[in-house]
Amino acid sequence: MALMAKQQAEVQVAAPARVRLGRALLLGLIGSALTSVIVAAAELVAQTIQIGMMQLPPAVVALLFVVVLLNRLVARFSPRSALRAPELAVVFVMMLFSGMIASRGVMERLLPAQVAVSYYAEGNNWEQLYFPLLNPALLPWDPTAPQPEPLVKWFYQRLPFGETIPWGAWIASTARWLVLIGAVFVAFLCIGVLLRKQWVENERLSFPLVQLPLELMRGGEFFANRLFWVGALVPMFVFTLNGLHRNIPTIPEITLVYHLKDYFRTPPYDQMTMFSLYISFAAIGFFFLIPTELLFSFWFFYLLSKGLELLGLTYGFETQAKHAAAAGFVKWLGSGAFFAVAGYVIYSARHHLRYVWAVVRGHAPPPPPGSELLSYRWAFWGLIGSFVVIVLWARWAGMDWWVAVLVFAIYLMVQALVMARCTAEGGLLITEGCFTPMDIITMEKYSLLSPRNLTVMAQLDAVLFRDLRGIPITGYLDAQKLGGEVRLPKQNLLITLGVGIVAAIVIAFVFQLWLPYTYGALNLYTYVYERQPTQFFRENAPFMTPSGGETPIPAFRPLFFALGFVTTLLLAWGRSALPGFPFHPLGFAMIATWGVIILWFSMLIAWLIKVPLLRYGGMPLYRRVRPFFLGMIFGEFLSAAIWAVLALLYRVETPVYPWP
Question: Would you tell me how many other CB atoms lie within 10 Å of the CB of residue 157?
């Protein structure tokens, strides 16, 4: 009880700022619409730069900068009419969710997943394997009719002259999917509320992705800082030069991507999985903001995994992996580490969660009104209720009870939780993991899942589980951190989230249904319309028959999973028990994830800069040069948005950005 009283006493709610919410929401809706259209057009039509799929989309940063510039112009002539920082936060949060929802977060996966299995069924025997097991209520087409139906055919080949988009069928099936998506969003919101105090106030995580938007909103002296603009000019110059080179080859370019495998031509080196150097100024800027032991652990454990891969090639370990650009046994080490990190995160929050549980039971006083988006009781029961809705939905879709409970528990409490932590503490822009829930269930035997379960899993993997880029749980946590910094009242933030998410879904649905029927999905981004939505139907097909379910699986997967789990626990113990311990368990867990595979070299560069800087200049020098690194983030993201717009308007070639 003393601990609970202490926690209650520590809660201090800063006086909320006065917010003209209606105007901010209106501007946020305009910004959301622009974000959604620009992201979808750039990623799906121009197919050049992925400006929406990261946890802080470059398109959102660029649009926020435009809003801030216009706001400063308004302030010169009518200071009372200008937006204050909390109102700018409302606009930013709405655009943030719009960018993620328009990209990998929801819509780029949800719409293609409903029709791809029909269009690509011919030649794959999917009509016999899958169609009898699909829930027709989740499809805008009839699985019993001759395939592909006009609705599907027109989606991929564009609408014939005189025909109209079949909105009714799409609205009906998508609305049923949105019951699941909505329940997942509520679960993420509740998890974010339950963890906010622990991560923001108790552990004081740095939330690197919030720092640049926050400085842009505050403006003032930050815009007058020369180091910020010098930092911004570096990537602006490089990507301008590289973009000109793409269109005028006689102009030189500065290479930012090196594929090291091209230099390894003898065994076993030539058999290694992806090993490349990507130099991203934005990534260097973000990673400069995180603790050095975590920064060191990211790149060190990745390079260690490449050494282990060479050892595995020598001794015949599983070297190929589904759903990870890493050796098979390295993937399983990382998968076990994910589960250990999830447990470690919950264990680290045990005192706070004990207080939350006491509040839920009425045995402790709740935090003061206005300190959280939801009361702890609402958040706790909201999480339980949303999980029940999720499981009921999955059962209705055709999944067994035990499978539904297990896969969504893994998704919410392992995949999403660990990636949220990696963003809040590690500044990881790209949140694609190295496994799916089905990988864990079928670690030893595919026959554990019936054909109907495999069918539903193929749909859910495409919509939720496989590609975690744009996962919205990070947006909830970043929004709460940002709102607290600018003193945006929690009630206003909750309204902002509700209005912003609903509007973003509607806008993205309308525009991204119009796009394929107008241009033809075959002429749009192949990954979104063919590779991603059909991947798991292709992978699961061999196991849809009794004999296929007994296909031999490489041995020792559970052993490497357990080894990764135990190693991570030992790292967590060392970090808490041994002063000066140099390793962070989160760094080990990320060894097989796409974000580290792509950005490890940028992490190394940031570490090589930050360590001597702190050693010889301390925190005063760190604070002095921090604007330079924020400027590098800003410059790279702004240039990406500019080139994306140029590609849309004038069909020019764009430079290669180092975050594929």
Answer: 17
- What does the DSSP assignment read for 510-526? HHHHHHHHHH-GGGS-H
Residue with tokens 């003032």: 220
Burial of 278 from C-beta contacts in 10 A (0-12 / 13-18 / 19+)? buried
Q: Count of alpha carbons within 13 Å of 618, Cβ hemisphere only?
A: 1
Q: Which two three-digit tokens encode residue 248?
A: 């005028």
What ranges in 364-466 are assigned the alpha helix state H?
376-397, 401-410, 417-426, 437-441, 451-460
Which burial class, exposed, middle or buried, applies to 16 when counting CB atoms under 10 A from its CB (0-12, 13-18, 19+)?
A: middle
Find the farthest-apart pair of alpha carbons in the chain and give their distance in angstroms, rounded: 75
Supply 464's token pair.
């939720």
pLDDT of 10 higher than 80: no
Structure tokens, 97:
């969710």
- Is 463 in contact with 108 (CB distance < 8 Å)? no
First CA to last CA distance, the chain: 50
Comparing CA positions, the residue from 471, 476, 469 lying closest to residue 593 is 469
Give burial (CB, 10 Å; 0-12/13-18/19+) of 279.
Answer: middle
- Per the CB < 8 A criterion, the answer to whether 538 and 124 are in contact is yes
Which residues are CB-neighbours of 631 under 8 A, at least 6 positions away? 227, 228, 229, 230, 231, 232, 233, 234, 285
Tokens encoding 620: 């005063």
Looking up tokens 């947006």, which residue turns up? Answer: 475
What's the sign of the alpha-carbon dihedral 122, 124, 130, 136? negative
| DSSP per position, 244-291 | HHHHSTTS-----EEEGGGG--STTGGG----EEE--HHHHHHHHTS-
Task: Return d(Cα 44, Cα 525) in angstroms, integer.
Answer: 5
Q: How confident is the model at residue 15, as a pLDDT?
A: 59
Question: Are the CB atoms for 458 and 537 separated by under 8 Å?
Answer: yes
Q: Rounded to an integer, what distance in angstroms lies between the CA atom of residue 535 and that of residue 525?
A: 15
**pLDDT at residue 12 is higher than 60:** no
Q: What angle do CA 220, 226, 230 make, to 5 degrees?
A: 125
Q: Is residue 659 classed as helix, strand or coil in its secondary structure?
A: coil
**What is the C-alpha radius of gyration for the chain, rounded to an integer number of angstroms?**
24
> What single-letter amino acid sits at 659?
W
Environment class of 47 (CB within 10 Å of its CB; exposed 0-12, middle 13-18, buried 19+):
middle
Distance (Å, whole) CA 562 – CA 388: 30
Residues ≥6 apart with Cβ < 8 Å to 403: 394, 441, 449, 453, 457
Give CA–CA dist 450/279, Å, rounded.
Answer: 45
Distance of alpha carbon 431 from the chain centroid: 4
Say yes or no to pLDDT of 3 above 70: no
> Residue 193 and residue 286: Cα distance in Å, rounded?
25
CB count within 10 Å of CB 336 equals 27
Whole-structure pTM over 0.90, yes or no?
A: yes
CA distance 378 to 164: 44
Please give the helix or strand (H or E) that residue 545 lies within, else none.
none
For the stretch 358-362, contacts whose Cβ atoms lie closer than 8 Å and that sit 24 or more positions apart, written own/partner, are 358/4
* E strands in 146-202: none
Q: Indicate the SS3 state at residue 607.
A: helix
pLDDT digit string (tens) for 329-365? 999 999 999 999 999 999 999 999 999 999 999 999 9
Tell me which residue has tokens 């959280």. 372
8 Å CB contact between 95 and 112: no
